[in-house]
Amino acid sequence: MSKNFQQTLKEELNSFLSKQQNRFPLHETIKIDLHCHDHNSDVPDELIGRILNVPETWLPSEKLLDALKRNDCNAFTITNHNNARSCYELQDKGFDILTAAEFSCMVPDYSIGIHVLAYGFTQEQEIKLEKLRKNVYRFQEYARAENIPTVWAHPLYHYAAKKNPPQEFFNKMLLVFERFEMLNGQRDSLQNLLVKEWLEQITPEHIDKYAKDFGVNPKTYCIDPYNKVMTGGSDCHSGLFAGMSGTYLHVPNLEKRLKSESYSQLALEAIRNKQTVPYGAYQNTQKMTIQFLFYACQIALHYKDPGLLRLLLHKGEAQDKIIALAVSNLFCEAQRHKTTTSFIRTFMESMIGKKPPMLQKLFVNQAYKPIFDKAINIAEKYNSKNSQMADEYYKTIVGIHDQLSHILTDRLDKKISKQKIEDMDINAFIEKLELPLSIREYIGEKTSGFLDGLSFPFFGSLLVLSAHFTSAKTMFNTRPLLAEFSNRLNKYQHPKRIMWLTDTFGDKNGVATFLKEMHVEIKRRNLPIDIVCCNSALQSEDNLIVLKPAKEFTLPQYKDYTFRVPNFVELHNLFFDGGYDRIICSTEGIMGLFGLYLKHAYTVKASFYMHTDWLMFARKVLRIEGSNLSRVRRILRSFYRAYDKVLVLNSDQKTWLSSSQMNLKPENVSQTAHWVNSDFKQLASDKQQAFGLPESVPVLLYVGRVSNEKGVLELPAIYQRAKQVAPNVKVVVVGKGPAQEPLKKEMPDAIFLDWVQRDKLPLLYASADLLVLPSRFDTFAMVVLEALSCGLPAIAYNTKGPKDIIKHEKCGFLVETPTEMQERIAEYLQCDKTAFRNAAVKRAADYQPDGIISELMDAVGMG
Questions:
Q1: Between 220 and 321, residue with greater pLDDT
Q2: Whose C-alpha in 261, 625, 655, 719 is 20 to 30 A from the C-alpha of 129?
Q3: E strands, 262-415, where?
Q4: Burial of 435 from C-beta contacts in 10 A (0-12 / 13-18 / 19+)
Q5: Closest to 462 (Cα-Cα) out of 415, 413, 405
Q6: Are 138 and 145 within 8 A, CB to CB?
Q7: pLDDT value at position 344?
Q8: What value does the mean pLDDT take over residues 161-182?
Q9: Per-residue pLDDT tens over the stretch 221-264
């Protein structure tokens, strides 16, 4: 991209706001935040919050006023949900407050809930508005009759993400409202700019047309339906950013009129007269992350178990209640740990400028002192009234998260090193995956000892990551609607760009080999794709982003592979900063899980590229059996179904995923393929150079990981049968793995070459007589395609990848049993091989990157 999408939005928004600010003379301007909340917003809109019985904020009214004054507001209002209690209470104390509330209204003919800000009503009028809010038309008609100005708050938010309101809904609302909250401090800049663009494109002719279409007289709801104006508000619930976004109100002769009238009276007059312009700044997820982290800290300190009966009887889907149960257990568990609660209190107070006493630092664990210092830094930033406070806060929060994560992984590594993981029974472990309702019951006394020292860094890191997730989810929950709006307005269309996640890139395996070839094609074709991996030995380059691991480790059960844990906050921010709008993931490990995190956080489409048959791996390698194997299948089913699309490499996988065992919708499963680069081509045979053998010696070649799941233990029997028809035949094994030593004992006269460089493989293929693949595990079998490209026929079992690639008795053989494989090889060694070799090259030509990549891009919505 020539310019980052977010940077473009920032420039456009700042330009617009600068022009708006100059519309009114400064000395005739009132500054007010028309959308902010305090402790009387005590019934949250979000279902999880209602189930857990927590308010939206614990912020006292006076603290909110202090925050507004800090940001130079000179008129004040509080817009709590469906009540104006705080306004009345402050008025009774002598404060000059404009009465207001944010009403949750229903649009009955569309069954859509919206938020409406109303100002300047009496207590009697509030009672009437409360009764009418279930029907926005009656609500607005009453407000119009009583001269109560209203604003449609965040018009492109508060809808279910999977069900976008139709365009006619927005057309009709243009007849019902004349004031629109264009700038909301809790929404991203794209959403705010789309509201601006939408309103600017509306003409009187549009209003007349919509009035005719719906049979509605807009003057029933609007004093002047042709004059649409914009407002702004912070929508702040914490007080941290109250007043940073809001509305400038124009009042002619302001100084003179203030001698006889109050700010609240003049503010109401300006709102009624539509003398409003929004003010604020570019929004990203940082402010929302800070707010949610502050909110999570409040919950952690004030949370009370709402009880299982409330959870069970409350309305909501099973998924909502499971999430609520998990969240409840986490907060209850956090409250059990003094270090955790002490830090949360210190951190929360620092965020509102209360500096912790230095004496407190003396009692802080040495490992946590740098974190304590960062909390002090936050308090200093608050008290400095720095205009970049949000950025400074966020940098400090990320620093705290990184240090907590480092402490957590370091301590976890030390504890794991003391455990005898080699002796762990994998079947017993899987049986424990059935969790009881209580986490405390699950962890038990033994596990509690294991968790000693981990609780604070774990909960601290989790709080920060959860705040990131929640902020992104809140801001981008309406992404499908915003995409529709962008296309309809032909403005601010989000670029199409893929983040391709993988746990392996620099490793020696089939997935890494394919991804390297894909990376070459991405660069050659200038595709909007970045491959993102986590590796300490690689460097980033064009279309390859390498994150340094927060932790690396291996497991005794799979020593050949290094697991790498990325910095999750870094990856979270990378998705936003990179302007991505969809995900492909190539591995089921840590990146696979984080792919689902990003899918839900940013409300984007995610596709999974299935390279490995993990069910067979569980059975063959990990020796998982019986009911535990069924558990593994159910886990895989849940994982794959969580993705929007699964890309598979063979027809067997496609059939299996769509079967009753896995229950994926057939339209959500697409078959793709691999290809080989131009280095793999037909060469003249040179067995002397390739294997150190005379040209007359027949060679059976195996290429791949030398392990049980690859079927390599069948090679000795194949070798013995081949010798019966070709006594001088040789088996050549290219690769390494745990079965290498047993094979050497069984085939002492075979040739073992270990791993060879890929550029050396074409000569090996061209010089061999037959590729032998005794594996039932390979989902695609890249080695088969490599061999065919070099004119080498192949024999394999009639399953998965080889089944789709090999044309039986044309360019190789497909067999059902080990005995049949032995006999087919014996027959082949005695026949003329020219036709087979020619057919192999012809078949390999069917796998070209042009067609494969084109179909892949279509499958993930990039066609």
A1: 220
A2: 261
A3: 276-279
A4: exposed
A5: 405
A6: no
A7: 87
A8: 91
A9: 999 999 999 999 999 999 999 999 999 999 999 999 999 999 99
Residue 445, pLDDT score: 47
Answer for the pair 529, 542: CB distance below 8 angstroms, yes or no: no
CA dist 3 → 412, 498, 500, 583 (Å): 42, 17, 21, 21
Structure letter (DSSP) for residue 541: B
In angstroms, the CA 532 to CA 335 distance is 37
Give the count of beta carbons closer than 10 Å to the beta carbon of residue 620. Answer: 18
Query: In terms of Cα–Cα distance, which of 529, 524, 534 is closest to 499?
Result: 529
Contact 367, 403 (CB under 8 A): no
Exposure b/e, 754-779, CB count within 10 A at least 16 = b: eeeebeebbbbbbbbbbbbbbbbbbb
- Average pLDDT of the chain is 90
Residue type for position 144: R
Query: The tokens of 359 are what?
Result: 């004496």
Dist CA 537 CA 535 (whole Å): 6
Sign of CA dihedral 368, 369, 371, 372: positive
| pLDDT grade for 159, boundaries at 50, 70 and 90 | low
Stated as kind and residue range, the H or E segment containing 315 is: none
Task: Name the residue with tokens 């070839």.
Answer: 517
Secondary structure class of 607 (helix, strand, coil): strand
- Burial annotation 441-468 (CB, 10 A radius, 16+ → b, else e): eeeeeeeeeeeebebbbbbbbbbbbbbb
As a whole number of Å, the end-to-end CA separation of the chain is 18
- pTM > 0.85: yes or no: yes
Q: Which among 50-59, 280-289, 351-360, 427-436 has the top mean pLDDT?
A: 50-59
Give the C-alpha separation, 828 to 772, whole Å: 12
Overall average pLDDT of the 796-814 stretch = 95
pLDDT at 598 over 90: yes
Band of pLDDT at residue 617, cut at 50, 70 and 90: confident
As a whole number of angstroms, the distance between CA 459 and CA 456 comes to 5
Q: For residues 103-124, give the mean pLDDT.
A: 95
Q: Which residues contact 782 (CB under 8 A, 6 or more apart)?
A: 510, 513, 514, 674, 676
Count of CB atoms situated within 10 Å of the CB of 85: 17
Q: What is the pLDDT of residues 38-88, one digit of tens each?
A: 999 988 777 788 888 888 899 999 999 999 999 999 999 999 999 999 999
pLDDT for 1 = 38
In angstroms, what CA-CA distances link 723 with 72, 334, 698, 718, 823? 92, 68, 10, 9, 12
SS3 letters across 53-69: CCCCCCCCHHHHHHHHH
29/862 Cα distance (integer angstroms): 49
pLDDT tens column, 527-570: 999 999 999 999 999 999 999 998 887 766 666 677 888 999 99
Assigned token pair, 120: 């300047």
SS3 of residue 753 by DSSP: strand
Residue 404 structure tokens: 């907590």
Amino acid at site 687: K
Those residues whose C-beta lies under 8 Å from the C-beta of residue 745, and which sit 6 or more positions away, are none
d(C-alpha 613, C-alpha 738), whole Å = 19
Residue with tokens 């929302």: 288
Helix axis angle for 338-351 and 455-476, nearest 10°, is 40
Produce one character per residue of 471-502: b if its CB has 16 or more CB atoms within 10 Å, e if not: bbbbbbbbbbbbbbbbeeeebbebeebbbbbb
Q: What is the dihedral of CA 453, 458, 463, 467, to 10 degrees?
A: 160
Instruction: Indicate the burial class of 830 (C-beta count within 10 angstroms; 0-12, 13-18, 19 or more).
Output: exposed
* Strand, helix or coil for residue 645: strand
